[in-house]
Amino acid sequence: MIDKRCSSAHEAVACVHDGATVMIGGFGSAGSPVELIHALIDHGARGLTVISNNAGCGRVGLAALIEAGRVERVVCSFPRSADSEVFASMYRAGRVALDLVPQGTLAERIRAGGAGVPAFYTPVSVGTPLGEGKERRSFAGRECVLEHALTADFALVRAERADRYGNLVYRKTARNFGPIMCMASRVAIVQARRVVEPGEIDPEVVVTPGVFVQRVVEVRDPADESALVREGRRYP
Amino acid sequence: MSAHTGWSREEMAALAALDILDGTCVNLGIGIPELVAQHVPPGRELVFHTENGLLGVGPPPTPGDEDADLINAGKKPVTALPGAAYFHHADSFAMIRGGHIGVCVLGAMQVSATGDLANWSTGEPDAIPAVGGAMDLVAGVGRVLVLMEHTTRRGEPKLVERCTLPLTGVGVVSRVYTNLAVVDVAARGLVVRRLAPGVDIEAVRACTGAPLIDGRDGREEGP
């Protein structure tokens, strides 16, 4: 029987090894898999490369993982916000490296990684500092740069509903990077507000087919990361 | 000339909204460009796109109705209008890069006479670099409108011969709306289309870092 369900967030992330590359879903707080990230902090894996759109807010979730010194490198598009002091101070202290990637290029590199496309050309970043040093080629008179696919050992993703096959639906703009990160990682670990019986998710509305998902854990009442940040909470 | 002479930010946003055709899908940048949504002329329907994954962005929710899963690219709570659609990031940027979004409205630090845009980095060595979707938007969207003050707070021109700040894109800006003027980026240079009330063109030239062609009605052909 196929059953990707785990009994706890801690069990779900127990496979994450030191030095792993981990994609973490979410755009700001929307879709941030807070419970999985906190379980990863408890688990203790270090030397991680994190691929995520942002670099955490406040002192919870991804910011807490970085503050705990577990992250060597962040690949992201926007590590700055009103409450991203943890990343800023760790970056300035030379304790975390940054690969800055335009947001759409980041998304497409992840999608390509999940789709078995090793690299692609895009006009984005030509003539800018982020396009420097990249292989170039012109198509129909338009200069493009070569961008390489991104893959990961693990992805941590938050969904709304899941079943034991790993079929997923998301909620509103919390979908953001979830579907493509599940595709691009060897082991996609998903926390869902409800884990339902196969058939309860209409096949017509499945957003991420279960083939892209390896582990599912129900987190019935996930924390709202933006509320934790507003309340000044920290983890652990 | 003071940066506060001429049009207010609301008026600049209303001018930009007037220039966006019925039925266009529009991406609004963070800050002043967000005001454009409040100034869509009656009888015109625009569909607002936010790159974190929503077409059909509605007005902000009433206090107490915020949903942490429903935000815009500026991470502020929004609503979704009837007919809205949610999608993942690769689809969202396929809309942008693939030319499916008709117009984007962005803020800027500098715009050059040839339409180069600098709006993502101050270039200061200790700044935390952050780019977001700006480079994707200007590379993919056909018509890039810029809303900005005509000069910096220190009175330096933001419309310049060549950008000195790190670029977001090369030759990408179509039109600039400042507090003083509406300026097109044309093949032959920067063409003034409109001046704010009480502002004369020589005063605008004095605080612009590149030559301005007077293209107000009747004076000059289109770009």
CATH superfamily of the domain at 18-100 and 151-222 in chain A: Glutaconate Coenzyme A-transferase
Question: Termini separation of chain A (Å)?
Answer: 37 Å
Radius of gyration of chain B from CA coordinates: 17 Å
* Unreliable runs of chain A: none
- CATH level 1 name of the domain at 18-100 and 151-222 in chain A: Alpha Beta
Average residue pLDDT of chain A: 97
How would you classify the helix and strand content of chain B by structural class? alpha/beta
Please, what is the oligomeric state? heterodimer
What CATH calls the topology of the domain at 18-100 and 151-222 in chain A is Glutaconate Coenzyme A-transferase
> What is the strand content of chain A?
25-35%
The topology string of helices and strands of chain A comes to EHEHEHEHEHEEEEEHEEH
Gross geometry of chain A: globular
Q: Strand pairing plus helix content of chain A: what structural class? A: alpha/beta
Q: Which bin fits the share of residues in helices of chain A?
A: 10-25%
| End-to-end CA span of chain B | 27 Å
Report the CATH C-level class of chain B. Alpha Beta
The CATH topology of chain B corresponds to: Glutaconate Coenzyme A-transferase
The CATH superfamily of chain B is identified as: Glutaconate Coenzyme A-transferase
* Helix and strand pattern of chain B: HEEEEHEEEHEEEEEHE
Features:
heterodimer; A: 236 residues; alpha/beta; Glutaconate Coenzyme A-transferase; nine-stranded mixed sheet; three-stranded antiparallel sheet; 7 helices; B: 223 residues; ten-stranded mixed sheet; three-stranded mixed sheet; 13 strands; globular
Sum this structure up briefly.
The complex is a heterodimer of chains A (236) and B (223). Chain A has 236 residues and is an alpha/beta fold.
Walk me through the structure.
The complex is a heterodimer of chains A (236) and B (223). By secondary structure, chain A is α/β, with parallel strands linked by helices. Chain A is 24% helix and 28% strand. The relative contact order of chain A is 0.20. In chain B, strands 4-3-2-1-5-8-10-11-12-13 form a ten-stranded mixed beta sheet. A three-stranded mixed beta sheet of chain B has the order 7-6-9, with no helix packed on it. The mean pLDDT of chain B is 94. At the A-B interface, helix 4, helix 5, helix 6 and helix 7 of A face helix 2 and helix 3 of B.
